[in-house]
Each structure stands twice: as C-alpha cells, then as structure tokens.
Design goal:
With about 240 residues, the protein is an alpha+beta fold. The protein has 3 domains: about 60 residues, Orthogonal Bundle (Arc Repressor Mutant, subunit A), CATH 1.10.10; about 55 residues, Orthogonal Bundle (Diphtheria Toxin Repressor, domain 2), CATH 1.10.60; about 80 residues, SH3 type barrels (Roll). About 45% of the residues lie in helices and about 15% in strands. It has 9 helices and 8 strands. The protein has a 6-stranded antiparallel sheet. A two-stranded antiparallel sheet has the order 1-2. A hairpin with a 2-residue loop joins strand 6 and strand 7. The chain is rod-shaped, with a radius of gyration of 27 Å. InterPro entries: DtxR_MntR_Metal-Reg (IPR050536), Fe-transptr_FeoA-like (IPR007167), Fe_dep_repressor (IPR001367), Fe_dep_repressor_sf (IPR036421), FeoA_core_dom (IPR038157), HTH_DTXR (IPR022687), Iron_dep_repressor (IPR022689), Transcriptional_repressor_C (IPR008988). In the presence of manganese, represses expression of mntH and mntS. Up-regulates expression of mntP. It is found in: Cytoplasm. Belongs to the DtxR/MntR family.
Length: about 240
C-alpha cells in the first residue's frame, strides 16, 4: 500500500472567532503545557460542538494538529499567527490602559474587539506613539494636557474639558482649572483668571502668541501658550 504524505493545508479565511481560538490555545499551552478541548471550551465560554467545528477548520488550514481525545497542538503556522494576534492584543491593551487611561478590564475588552481588524503595521505605529508620549521628556507637556483632559470626561453630558482658545469669540465660559503646564499661574490669578470666573474670548492673535479675553468684565491679555492650558466649561455661564 502506498503511503500518503501529510495533507496539504487549505486556504481558509481566519475569522475573528478563529483567531480567538488560536490565541486561547497558545495561552493554555503557555500556562499548562497543553490545551485540551474541554479547557478551550471553558476558557472561551462556548459549547464543545463549537470547539470541534473550529478546530476542524483550523486543522484543515494547517494551523493546529487536532486529533480526538488528544491535546490540541499548534503547528508552526499556528504559533506564528497566534503570536501576531497576541502581540496586537498586548499593544492595543497597553495603548488603551497606559495612554488613554481606561480601566484594565475595559482596555482588555476593547483590545479583544479591535485586534482582529487592526493590522500589524497599525499596531506598531500605535506602540511608537504610545511610547513616545509616555517616555519622551519633550512630551511632558502633552502628558499633562492629556491627563487633565481625561479628568473632564463624563461631566453630565456637558461640553467640558475644552481649552480657552477653542471658545468661539464672543462666547462665555466658566474657568474650570489652570493646567499644570502654566509656568506662572499666580500671574493669571492676579488678572482674575481663577476657578469659577466667567471668561470671554475677544481676540486670538496667533502671529504674536497672544489671547485677549475678558474676565468678569475686565480685559485680560495672556499668551496663547497659557490660554491653551486653561480649561473651561462653555456651558457653565
């Protein structure tokens, strides 16, 4: 009888669900040294028939070595694909948690949803941006700005967390906070720019780095650099 060689892998479309299976199998093998179908079902919270069907598809695609009543093994292609998916997950979760300040649970859930539609190049660019903002000394002012901006999210559905130059000329707003990037906050406070004050932008002069505004009826002249770090509530007045 002639011996047949290994079956040639079929070209299959890896859906988000199938990528989740590869990711789960890799995690189980890393944690326990093996991945049984029952463990896969428990980890993914799915029923055994779903696991059997998914593993059959992955086996045909050449991503797993699947035989009934034996632990599931990843092939070389399966290991490579699982690592790509897991890397994207790590990058996305880190981006959401460390840079955007989202809670760990929400960051993980968001990463699970998005990892399947983001390619490796996009994930790498997000990693570069995150690393630069978090670690470069010349991004310290931006870190302060983002931290303060995130503080104002969810203020009873009102438009808050806006900085002074974004206020339309002639409109009123209430000062919420003088940001950490302002070098001499006492100088602004002396002009009446304190928390709770009513402010109106009269002129923006970017060519000379100035912002002319009116604070509780008095004219105030300040630099745009400072104005960009004065947090206001446009609906507060």
């Amino acid at each position: 009888m002639l011996k047949t060689g290994p079956k040639k892998a079929e070209a299959i479309q890896l859906s988000a669900s199938l990528e989740d299976y590869l990711e789960t199998i890799a995690a189980l093998i890393e944690e326990h040294g093996h991945a049984h179908t029952s463990d896969i079902a428990e980890r993914m919270k799915v029923k055994m028939p779903s696991v059997t069907y998914a593993l059959g598809t992955l086996s045909r695609g050449g991503y797993v070595d699947y035989r009934p009543n034996q632990p599931v093994m990843l092939t070389g292609a399966g290991i490579a694909m699982a690592e790509r998916v897991r890397r994207k997950h790590r990058v996305l979760e880190d981006f959401f948690h460390e840079l955007l300040g989202l809670p760990a649970g929400i960051s993980g859930e968001a990463a699970c949803r998005i990892e399947h539609v983001v390619d490796g190049n996009t994930a790498s660019r997000m990693q570069i941006i995150s690393g630069a903002i978090r670690h470069r000394n010349d991004c310290r002012a931006l870190r302060n700005y983002l931290e303060e901006a995130f503080e104002f999210l969810g203020y009873a559905e009102r438009e808050v967390g806006t900085v002074l130059p974004a206020l339309p000329v002639g409109k009123h707003a209430t000062v919420l906070k003088l940001g950490a990037n302002i070098a001499e906050p006492q100088r602004l406070e002396a002009q009446g720019l304190t928390v709770g004050a009513t402010v109106t932008v009269e002129r923006l002069l970017p060519e000379v780095n100035r912002c002319v505004c009116r604070v509780d009826g008095r004219e105030c002249d300040l630099s745009l650099d400072d104005a960009e770090n004065i947090w206001i509530d446009p609906a507060g007045s």
